[in-house]
Amino acid sequence: WVEPICDGALILRHFSVQHETEIMEGIQQVLNSHPFRQMRTPNGHRMSVAMTCCGDVGWVSDKDGYRYSPYNPENGTRWPDIPERLAALAMQAALEAGYPGFQPDSCLINQYQTGSRLSLHQDKDEKNFAAPIVSFSLGISATFLFGGMQRSDSVQRYHLAHGDVAVWGGPARLRYHGVAPIKDAAHPLLGTQRINLTFRQAM
Ligand code: MD5
Ligand code: FE
């Protein structure tokens, strides 16, 4: 079922549960050559979320800042293609959310473990803010923090569970958001981790 968040954003509850096996196969394919690693912020802090990417470009962070790069700085090689079945599911979710023609060229894969968190931020390293961001949640649950256009604005909390897909576009695209510290839990398929896929039109 569909849970509206605000103008431009909604959650497709349970959307990807029936595809969980092929989604995990797609993720594993990327991990084989580009495993999760914890990058550093420009301030030098190690992020608690481990990440990897696929697509034409991937989101990277280091002492020089945040950016999209065709290369994984870890090994200097190009990111693998977004697995075809994953791209198709992301396009289908975007379509159901009212965004036909979504063509992701980048997918950031976030791995959360107990205690991992993502502090409030805006996604503004992409070139095209007209395209939505399509976000798949897998594994243990998270409390998603949805803020306003300023960091100091109050946040609404949303429970994101295995299979939920959130689509953030229109006026929601540049809202501050984050993920509260992940509570210790276990999921039958993914164990003690949460994986989040964010499909983007970055270039
Ligand atoms: C996550 N990831 O659960 C979230 C899901 C990230 C990130 O925030 O940058 O990797 S994506 C949530 C999102 C994206 C764009 C806009 C908004 C939320 N929003 O308007 O709240 O790991
Ligand atoms: Fe974000």
SSE blueprint and pairings:
Elements: E1 2-6, E2 9-12, H1 20-33, E3 50-55, E4 58-62, E5 65-69, H2 84-96, E6 106-112, E7 118-121, E8 133-139, E9 142-146, E10 156-160, E11 165-168, E12 177-179, E13 194-200
3D architecture notes:
This protein has one domain (2-200): Sandwich (Jelly Rolls). The protein is built from 2 helices and 13 strands, in the order ββαβββαββββββββ. The longest helix has 14 residues, at 20-33. By secondary structure, the chain is α+β, with helices and mostly antiparallel strands. The N and C termini lie far apart (31 Å). It has helices spanning 20-33, 84-96, and strands at 2-6, 9-12, 50-55, 58-62, 65-69, 106-112, 118-121, 133-139, 142-146, 156-160, 165-168, 177-179, 194-200. A 7-stranded antiparallel beta sheet has the order 1-2-11-8-13-6-3, with helices on one face. β4 (58-62) and β5 form a beta hairpin. Bound molecules: N-(carboxycarbonyl)-S-(3-nitrobenzyl)-L-cysteine (MD5) and fe (iii) ion. N-(carboxycarbonyl)-S-(3-nitrobenzyl)-L-cysteine (MD5) is lined by residues 9, 108, 110, 118, 123, 133, 135, 146, 168, 172-173, 175, 177, 179, 196, 198.
